[in-house]
Design a protein that fits this description.
Length: about 260
């Protein structure tokens, strides 16, 4: 009888310990899950803020582009047309020149109208948006730019396209302003699992070991890499003195499962 009571006591104790252990584990799991959900929500908020900031930057860059084109290109054409009109008043044989200049001005205005819509990137594929930038560089004779792409084109997430376009836009801007390059080559390649974009200029370049001393370049590279991480893209710069600068961007279509999501 005493042995039976002892066995019951031991069994009861073990059962109580197991219940307590299970409840403790459940409590720990719930806390862990809630913490991860909170981190996920914070990460989503950070991502949305980054997207909003990127959209603002694209619009600001677009407005700067419009300002340059109005002043440096269309403004000069219209000034030339005015001069030609004054000349044509005395010599009607000059009228065809006036017509040609005005026609060219209208062509430039139509090209510029593509940039006026702040949401233009949404209505274009990524390759089309890049082609628009390349076309603008050539039209304004900023640099001799070329774009090559394979025939396969995949529809990307709109937010990923915005981030990728802004990364490239930042590289293009640095090329135009600082590289002293005469040529810019852009290559876009879609494959089964990823998108690879390479852009290279033939400018003065720089020593990659001097990134710390070249604060603007270092910060710019960090910004581009941090943006890339938001969409699971890898971004790297490659440069050497006298050999130009290149950017390599690899974007994987399928989002990798994060450690936090895996632990859920």
């Amino acid at each position: 009888m005493e042995q039976q009571e002892t066995a019951i006591l031991i069994a009861t104790t073990v059962l109580v310990v197991l219940v307590i252990l299970i409840l403790t584990l459940f409590w720990v799991f719930q806390r862990r899950k809630n913490s991860l959900l909170l981190q996920q929500k914070e990460a989503e908020k950070k991502f949305e803020r980054a997207i909003a900031e990127t959209q603002i930057e694209i619009r600001e860059e677009t407005l700067r582009n419009i300002s340059w084109e109005l002043h440096d290109n269309i403004g000069q054409l219209l000034t030339l047309a005015k001069i030609q009109v004054d000349v044509a008043k005395e010599d009607t044989e000059k009228l065809p020149e006036v017509t040609e200049t005005i026609t060219k001005s209208l062509t430039e205005l139509r090209a510029l109208s593509k940039l006026i819509n702040p949401d233009a990137i949404k209505s274009l594929s990524l390759t089309e948006a890049i082609a628009l930038e390349v076309e603008r560089f050539n039209r304004l004779q900023f640099i001799e730019a070329t774009l090559s792409s394979n025939t396969e084109v995949r529809t990307l997430d709109n937010k990923a396209e915005i981030i990728i376009f802004r990364i490239l836009q930042e590289f293009f801007s640095n090329t135009i302003k600082h590289s002293k390059a005469s040529k810019l080559m852009v290559n876009v390649r879609y494959s089964k699992d990823k998108l690879v974009i390479q852009a290279k200029d033939d400018g003065v370049g720089f020593d990659m070991n001097d990134l710390k001393s070249r604060q603007n370049v270092g910060i710019g590279l960090c910004n581009m890499q941090n943006r890339g991480k938001l969409i699971n893209a890898e971004v790297s710069l490659d440069s050497a003195k006298g050999k130009g600068t290149a950017i390599n961007l690899t974007y994987y279509y399928k989002k990798l499962v994060t450690e936090e999501e895996d632990n859920l």
